[in-house]
């Protein structure tokens, strides 16, 4: 049996091609039924996300071409085009790859945790469609255990490696808990949306979203239980804000030094944290000169992200050591599974021989033949039948001069080496 992994991801293909290869929930069901019903594939799990599509299979013999043909045919794609953008792993490399993916070591953002949940979902879906057997059940449970250990024993997920996450971590570093803070978010684009989600998880006292387009701000505000205001209302709302995070597409600053001076005066110089992650800047740099205003730019956050990314890369090296160890543990289990099957077959063969000869002996005894002769005949025939295969193996090895095999046979048969 061979375990293989065939896939396409953000490193090997454009988003256009990844979209074509992705499996919708409806397609996933059909695909798993096709794979589980295919004579070549023993087990199969399909992982399909926005950044990757991967098929993990166990096969009687390694055969990546058949799997590639099936994938191209299922999505109606050109096989040659697809082959130029895939990667293929076999055996221990396939197992290593699966564990790396589950730990976030192969992700667009190093160490991101979402992929583990997506792999668990893929495994459960495959199990529902009877595409998972003993081997993959053990493999994926082992993978989930490895991912948990990596999260526990390394700092792979401890540091912020996105500007949005870094902005929220900075606010937490300065204020500690955010449960008594009022947060003002300016903008409603993708970056502010990420900031809003991270902020919301920290349960601030209040969130307000300010945007040029009220409707777009309202969609975001509903997700994080926030108030919505227009940009024209900023001066009056700034007075109540402890944390201001801004990211718009404006070509001119939205918040000037004078506006902040007025807000601080009305706040009786209660400190304010400003985080400007827009390019060009949304907040005038002179705001940072005010005594009670603390201004951080996108460059400040990028420096934090770079430092944290270096820390995650160190953690990734530690994670790989854990993965290497667990791959070997799984391979040892896999080999033991083969030995269990071998022993089972051998015992069955011996049992068949015993039953056959005992039945013959009992029949002869019932016919009144000499019991002593029958027992002797039974012993001789049983000995000869059990010795036949090992004797042939020894003779063949000796004839071919295979000294290593002869030594192994002696060891297996318990023959004194001296």
Give the topology.
Blueprint lengths: L1 E8 L5 H7 L3 H12 L4 E8 L3 E8 L4 H12 L3 H5 L3 E4 L1 H11 L11 H15 L5 H20 L9 H13 L6 E5 L3 H11 L5 E6 L2 H11 L2 E4 L3 H5 L4 E4 L10 H10 L5 E5 L16 E5 H69 L4 H30 L2 H11 L5
Parallel strand pairs: 5-6, 5-8, 6-7, 8-9, 9-10
Antiparallel strand pairs: 1-3, 1-4, 2-3
Helix pairs in contact: 5-7, 5-13, 6-7, 7-13, 8-9, 13-14, 14-15
Categorize the overall geometry: elongated
Largest sheet, in brief, is:
6 strands, parallel
CATH C-level name of the largest domain: Alpha Beta
Q: Give the number of domains.
A: 3
Which stretches are poorly predicted, pLDDT < 50 over at least 5 residues? none
- Helix and strand element order: EHHEEHHEHHHHEHEHEHEHEEHHH
Strand content: 5-15%
Description:
The chain is α/β, with parallel strands linked by helices and 418 residues long. The chain folds into 3 domains: 2-153, Beta Polymerase, domain 2 (2-Layer Sandwich); 163-306, Rossmann fold (3-Layer(aba) Sandwich), CATH 3.40.50; 342-413. It is 58% helix and 14% strand. It has 15 helices and 10 strands. It has helices at 15-21, 25-36, 64-75, 79-83, 92-102, 114-128, 134-153, 163-175, 190-200, 214-224, 234-238, 257-266, 298-366, 371-400, 403-413, and strands at residues 2-9, 41-48, 52-59, 87-90, 182-186, 206-211, 227-230, 243-246, 272-276, 293-297. The strands form 2 sheets. A 6-stranded parallel β-sheet has the order 7-6-5-8-9-10. Strands 2-3-1-4 form a 4-stranded antiparallel β-sheet, with helices on both faces. Helix 6 packs antiparallel against helix 7 (134-153) and helix 8 (163-175) runs parallel beside helix 9. The longest helix is centred in the C-terminal third of the chain and has 69 residues, at 298-366. The protein is elongated and about 120 Å long. The chain starts with a strand and ends in a 5-residue tail after the last helix.
């Amino acid at each position: 049996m061979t375990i293989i992994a065939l896939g396409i991801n953000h490193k090997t293909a454009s988003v256009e091609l990844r979209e074509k290869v992705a499996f919708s929930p409806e397609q996933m069901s059909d695909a798993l039924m096709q794979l589980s019903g295919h004579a070549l594939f023993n087990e199969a799990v399909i992982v399909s996300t926005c950044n990757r599509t991967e098929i993990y299979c166990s096969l009687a013999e390694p055969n990546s071409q058949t799997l590639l043909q099936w994938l191209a045919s299922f999505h109606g794609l050109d096989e040659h085009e697809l082959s130029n953008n895939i990667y293929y792993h076999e055996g221990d490399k396939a197992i290593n790859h699966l564990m790396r993916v589950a730990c976030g070591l192969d992700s667009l953002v190093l160490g991101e945790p979402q992929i583990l949940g997506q792999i668990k979902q893929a495994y459960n879906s495959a199990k529902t469609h009877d595409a998972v057997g003993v081997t993959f059940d053990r493999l994926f449970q082992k993978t989930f255990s490895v991912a948990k250990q990596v999260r526990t024993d390394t700092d792979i997920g401890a540091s912020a490696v996105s500007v949005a996450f870094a902005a929220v971590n900075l606010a937490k570093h300065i204020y500690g808990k955010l449960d008594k803070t009022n947060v003002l978010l300016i903008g409603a684009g993708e970056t502010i949306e990420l900031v809003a989600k991270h902020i919301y998880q920290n349960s601030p006292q209040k969130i307000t979203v300010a945007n040029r387009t009220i409707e777009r701000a309202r969609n975001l505000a509903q997700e994080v239980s926030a108030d919505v205001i227009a940009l024209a209302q900023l001066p009056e709302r700034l007075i109540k804000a402890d944390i201001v995070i801004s990211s718009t597409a404006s070509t001119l600053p939205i918040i000037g030094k004078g506006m902040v001076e007025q807000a601080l005066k009305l706040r009786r110089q209660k400190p304010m944290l400003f985080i400007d992650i827009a390019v060009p800047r949304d907040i005038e740099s002179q705001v940072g000169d005010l005594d009670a205003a603390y201004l951080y730019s996108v460059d400040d956050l990028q420096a934090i992200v770079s430092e944290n990314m270096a820390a995650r890369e160190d953690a990734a090296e530690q994670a790989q050591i854990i993965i290497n160890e667990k791959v070997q543990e799984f391979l040892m289990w896999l080999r033991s599974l083969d030995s269990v099957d071998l022993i089972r077959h051998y015992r069955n063969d011996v049992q068949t021989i015993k039953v056959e000869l005992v039945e013959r002996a009992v029949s002869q005894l019932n016919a009144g033949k000499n019991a002593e002769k029958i027992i002797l005949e039974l012993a001789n025939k049983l000995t000869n039948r059990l010795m036949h295969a090992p004797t042939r193996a020894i003779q063949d090895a000796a004839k071919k001069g295979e000294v290593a095999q002869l030594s192994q046979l002696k060891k297996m048969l318990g023959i004194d080496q001296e």
